[in-house]
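hey team, just a heads up i'm posting the complex here instead of the shared drive bc the drive is being weird again. everything in one block, sequence lines first with there labels, then the predicted structure for the whole assembly after. its two chains so it's a bit long, scroll down
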Amino acid sequence: MMKKELGLFLLLAVISAITGAINPAFLSFVNLLNMANLIGLFGVFALGEGLVIITGGIDLSLGSMFALLGVVFIDLLTTYQVPWPFALLLVLMGGLALGGIQGFLITRLKMQPFIVTLCGLLIYRGAARYYTSDSTRGFGYGDEASTLSNIASGNVAGIPNTFIFLIILAVVLGVLLHRSVYGRWLYAVGKNEEAARYSGIRTNLVIATAYVISGGLAGVSTVLFVFYTNSVSPSSFGNFYELYAIAAAVLGGCSLRGGEGSILGIVLGTALLQVLQNLVNILGIPNSLNFAVMGTVILIGVLADQQLQARRRRKAALAGLARTAPRSRETTILQNASPRGASALPTSAGDQA
Amino acid sequence: MVTPHDAGLAVLELKGIGKEFGAIRALHGVDLRVSPGEVVGLMGDNGAGKSTLVKIIAGNFPPSHGEIRFDGKVVHFARPIDARAIGIEVVYQDLALADNLTAAANVFLGRELKRKLGPFALLDHKAMAARALELFGELRSETRPHDLVKQMSGGQRQAVAIARTRLSNAKLVMMDEPTAAISVRQVEQVLSLIHRLKEQGVAVMLISHRMPDVFAVCDRVVVMRRGEKRADKAIGDTSPEEVTSLITGAKEAA
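-- predicted structure starts here --
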């Protein structure tokens, strides 16, 4: 399992080294901090998306959630002058609630995650545009929530707070996914929901919780993005961001079939995506090629990973054959059919294959 | 060796079990006794009522008529978890394992061992691996706790599924077609696993279509047809030919 993450890390290091060699500005302190900020911003909700993907589902609604929660958040702070702790709480609750509704539709009403969250994407975006009459919302010249603004977009000793948030959340979710019973169940549910249910796991609850966590992290990301851009235009804010998260998760080793992936992988996947975007700028590649570069790297990455896995499987299968082949076995089954009773069974035979 | 049908306490006793789904009568008047350490083969054609009977015993749904006694006490199951709580385990045909997890993780799935770390409960990998290794040892299986299930042979997967039932010290294990989808060589391993269970005093109900397997491990064979029990004979008193004719209906009852 760690092999994948190590490979990804090496890829990240090699790409960074080459880019840095071509243009040293890439490795400049300012550029690195800028990238760290973007990795933090895009990593937080990629973690949630990763959990959902591990259940075998998908969350397409994240970008639209940012828009809806974003305009509501700014409106609460500016128009209604709600104290920022309450506004923050409401936005986080809003994210959890939207995730909860999606989780409910998917687990209780047995709708497909793709459809539920696609409709979420359309509905939240539409609601955000209707709510604002398609106008951009931003902070006035007042200092509404300057404390929160400092927390969300400030830095500690130069390190962007967004990046620090990502690290903290990654550690918390890493423990949850890899060390806790919930994480174990999440993997089991993602691979074989029926088996998990037969084992007495409340699979609906496990799956719905993943969507709730994803929604909650979308709430956190909304606040971070709002203070990053300082304004929200409801028709474009967060557009396609869910695809960044899905790309990061897949690049990080999550399988869309569920049951696979790791927190470290998702963080590294996010980092790689941001490095690629940055590299396009730094190396003077036309900006219009941005998405094309990203797509190509993901495609090659996933392809290479699959080929490597297939090769490993073939090797393992060959090794397994070599281990069992020399052992000669009597045809005990057929002989056992005629003499009745269990006493005819060779009691010494364990399963040695 | 425990002799079948002895006067001892039955682990499972069914009396007049019947089940209707609307107008359809799936089961009618089934009586059955299973003693500790006894292996009972449950045979019958598709739709004969085997699965319905197993599902009733496993607590998937309640019977319309009759009573279930387990360890001498009348029991009612609302959910499968109730049946499991008193010691009835089912090994499903498709094994119900999570391929992406290790053998130990599958053995403990849903019943994970935890260790407290302040307010948090984390997985106790070490304890689970050690206990799983013990269980595989009891089954004389060479399955390694840290191996991923997806890399295992059919026989090893069966060992994992059966180890699950040993974890809870189940008194009755029902196995649904355990030898249906695996190679001939691995069938032998599975049958010897059933033998291990028997040695430890576990009652086993083997639901199978494979006549040789039933005659190799079972003490007794029960034949179902059209929702009724048509035969219940010690394996020494019958033959594959007789059982076949009972299953197909060429012979009405024995």
